[in-house]
Specification:
Layout (H helix, E strand, L loop, with lengths): L8 H11 L9 H8 L10 H28 L3 E5 L5 E12 L3 E8 L3 H13 L6 H18 L1 H18 L3 H13 L3 E2 L4 H40 L2 H4 L4 E6 L6 H11 L3 E5 L2 H13 L4 E4 L4 E3 L5 E5 L9 E6 L11 H10 L2 E8 L4 H11 L2 E6 L6 E3 L13 E4 L3 H13 L4 E4 L5 H13 L4 E4 L14 E4 L3 E3 L4 E3 L2 H8 L11 E5 L5 H9 L11 E3 L3 H11 L4 H12 L6 E3 L2 H11 L6 H8 L8 H16 L14 H20 L7 H36 L2
Parallel strand pairs: 3-4, 5-11, 5-12, 6-9, 6-10, 7-9, 10-11, 13-20, 14-16, 14-17, 15-16, 17-20, 21-22
Antiparallel strand pairs: 1-2, 2-3, 7-8, 18-19
Length: 714
């Protein structure tokens, strides 16, 4: 007996489509069968189900062709794969940074949870990518946060392994990061219970290979460095003769790294502390004197203390690169990467003639320090320091109305500092104020007011992160998480947030330090910085340099030109070639000033001195003053003391202090021209007093005005 033929399901679907009066050639019957979840043979086909399925498939096709691209633009973390039946498989791509600044992102694909899946299904069914779009974004953000929380421990372990690798490869960290980044970009991981194990199994050999790549590139880099650094390193003859030992006290703010370095400095027979700020040089000079040492201080403007001191506190730009000493402490070594002042840290790191050089700073400077030690063939020991008290971020915002005595409110412009100050004063607070345009003397006086309790709130810029002695700070309150950096407005980096937040909770005074924000939107960026990825090593570890007088003189003689602009242009072309270990420090600004100073008939060495005078290059009045001073010098005259009015506004007094400081700086180079030093010091002191008086009086006047208003209203 013949077996009954089992009918293919596609034949039944073809007949159903015919009964519905639809053109069969426009239909993918296999995709239709799959969509209906029918077997290949013997299925019962209902016309109503076929009609509904074809409608759904047409909507899905339209969504794949039109809606899906729009949805991907609206929610970039969504990933979609369209099947043969136009069904869509969704995943959410979660990117977890292993280092900050978008370096080494771990990519994890997560299946949508029911909430996300429901919204996506509704969008596809209606071919409407805008339907409940905000709900989708919220649900995806929650799924992303939940995934990151679930992976916290394996991610922390992986970050620790990568940091250990970076410390091992040192100067070749950029090659390690580049290899790891390429590998991570090419292999997303699926989220699941075995992911933690998979990360170890897959990434351990990738890390080993990245270290091998870094070591292979290291040999070539060292050969290039021998040529590139050669003449620069050898010009520091006093340092080269000492066979120096470099110690890197590496750690975050409030970790005790600088304190330990200063302990070693004071115990040594001779030494120097190289400060990023004149104010810090002054504070440490006084600390050295208090310990009974024969101490001195040198800045660009003044020399204080004992003649022929055993221990000297200096601003970094005035480092003595000729006199051998036992210990030198270079603070804030991460300033090597600063385009304007990095050259001074480069000179000190390669050239300070100390038997032991202790550099203090954050871990993002390690690749620079390692490269310098290798280039100079000097030993390097890295001593890690950990923060001594935990930082806790408050989950709720702290508006200015709820700021408490002892808080420091941080802003990122002079205008914002004064706006915050006005609000706080109006609420009855006594406010101390610190920002970059204030002179070191005024900043110090304001810090002392806060430490003593005369002021109960401190309003400051990010200058707070540079180690200024502010006394115990329990809480740092960010009034913004964006800043203008001279080029454009940008978000604060994780490193900048950590540097500022780290001032809260001084060890020995507070068990913990608290961090807060005035606005709810600022909390998550701060949270990401404090709990997130470590600082990435610099992708570009070229050192900022600028020519010294010897180089300027040599090039001018060779070119037979008196033009500083021509000499500086030549220097840039000759020094900053492809593959050079150097890059120019603030070259565009120096070239612009050189063009101005070239108008004066001065020896080229003197033109160079004027071109690097510490003056506000953005201030047209200050630049005009500098040009007039150079003309007086060229004519053989003397520059009289500035005339200033004590009745001027705050910005006028600030400019007066800056110009007086520039005059004093030039007086140390050209004493016969800038010879009215005592008058200038007196004028600067009066201007500083006027600024401090203004800061005190405005607060007092507003408080009095508010009190009178309250009395009058009764």
């Amino acid at each position: 007996m013949a077996r009954k033929r089992v009918r293919p399901t596609i034949e039944s679907l073809t007949e159903a489509v015919g009964r519905l009066g639809l053109p069969a050639k426009e239909i993918d019957f296999e995709a239709l069968r799959i969509h209906l979840e029918l077997p290949e043979f013997g299925a019962t086909v209902e016309d109503e189900r076929v009609t509904r399925a074809l409608r759904e498939m047409r909507a899905a096709r339209a969504f794949v062709e039109e809606g899906l691209p729009a949805l991907k633009r609206a929610v970039p973390s969504l990933r979609a794969v369209a099947g043969k039946d136009r069904g869509i498989s969704w995943t959410v791509r979660v990117e977890i940074p292993l280092l900050e600044a978008g370096r080494l992102d771990l990519r994890v694909d997560v299946a949508p949870d029911p909430g996300v899946a429901e919204i996506l299904a509704g969008m596809a069914a209606r071919n409407d990518p805008s339907r409940r779009l905000e709900d989708l974004r919220t649900a995806v953000a929650e799924l992303t946060a939940e995934t990151i929380r679930a992976l916290r421990k394996p991610i922390e372990r992986l970050r620790a392994q990568i940091l250990a690798d970076l410390r091992e490869v040192g100067a070749d960290a950029a090659a390690y990061v580049a290899h790891m980044d390429r590998s991570l970009r090419s292999r997303p991981f699926g989220f699941g219970p075995k992911l933690a194990r998979a990360l170890t199994d897959v990434l351990t050999p990738v890390r080993q290979r990245a270290k091998a790549v870094a070591r292979e590139g290291s040999r070539l880099r060292r050969l290039r460095d021998q040529v590139g650094f050669g003449a620069y390193i050898e010009k520091f003859g006093a340092a080269r003769r000492l066979n120096r030992r470099i110690l890197f006290h590496m750690g975050p703010t409030n970790s005790g790294k600088t304190y330990a370095a200063l302990q070693a400095l004071t115990a040594a027979p001779t030494g120097a502390y190289l400060a990023p700020l004149r104010l810090l040089a002054l504070e440490n000079y006084e600390a050295l004197r208090e310990r009974g040492l024969r101490a001195g201080m040198v800045t660009g403007e003044e020399v204080l203390g004992e003649p022929d001191p055993t221990h000297t506190a200096r601003t970094i730009e005035t480092a003595d690169l000729t006199r051998p000493i036992d210990i030198a402490v270079i603070d804030e070594i991460q300033m090597l990467s600063d385009p304007d002042r990095g050259w001074a840290w480069t000179n000190a790191l390669f050239g300070v003639p100390a038997r032991t050089v202790i550099v203090c700073g954050s871990d993002d400077a390690l690749s620079y320090v390692r490269r310098a030690a290798e280039a100079a063939n000097e030993s390097l020991e890295v001593i890690p320091f950990e923060r001594k008290s935990p930082l806790i971020l408050l989950d709720e915002p702290v508006p200015l109305e709820k700021v408490e005595p002892g808080d420091a409110v941080v802003a990122f412009s002079r205008r914002a500092v004064h706006e915050n100050r006005e609000i706080l004063v109006a609420r009855g607070h006594r406010v101390a104020t610190i920002y970059g345009a204030l002179s070191p003397e005024v900043r110090r006086a304001e810090a002392a007011r806060f430490r003593s309790g005369e002021a109960d709130i401190l309003v400051t810029t990010d200058a707070i992160g540079m180690g200024l002695n502010l006394g115990p700070l329990k809480r740092i309150v960010f009034s913004a998480v964006r800043k203008w950096d001279g080029v454009g407005e940008r978000a604060l980096t994780n490193s900048e947030i950590r540097q500022i937040a780290g001032r809260a909770g001084r060890y020995g005074h507070h068990e913990v330090g608290y961090v807060a924000a005035t606005e709810p939107t600022a909390i998550e960026p701060i949270r990401a910085a404090l709990a997130g990825a470590p600082t990435a090593p610099a992708a570009d570890t070229r050192f900022y340099v600028r020519p010294d007088l010897t180089a300027i003189r040599s090039v001018a003689e060779g070119m037979r030109t008196p033009s500083l602009h021509e000499v500086m242009t030549h220097f840039a072309r000759a020094t900053f070639y492809a593959g050079s270990p150097f890059q120019p420090s603030a070259l565009e600004e120096v070239l612009e000033i050189a063009r101005t100073i070239d108008r004066a008939r001065l020896p080229i060495e003197e033109k160079f001195v004027f071109s690097v005078c510490p003056i506000d290059r953005r201030d047209e009045i200050a630049m005009g003053m500098l040009e007039r001073w150079s003309q007086v010098r060229a004519a053989g005259g003397a520059v009289p003391a500035l005339r200033a009015s004590l009745a001027g506004e705050l910005d006028y007094q600030e400019r007066t202090v800056k110009l007086a400081s520039a005059y004093l700086w030039l007086s140390r180079r050209f004493p016969e021209t800038f010879d009215d030093v005592e008058a200038i010091r007196h004028m600067r002191g009066r201007a500083n007093d006027a600024i401090e008086h203004h800061l005190r009086q405005t607060a007092a006047r507003k408080a009095e005005r508010r009190s009178r208003h309250a009395i009058g209203g009764r």
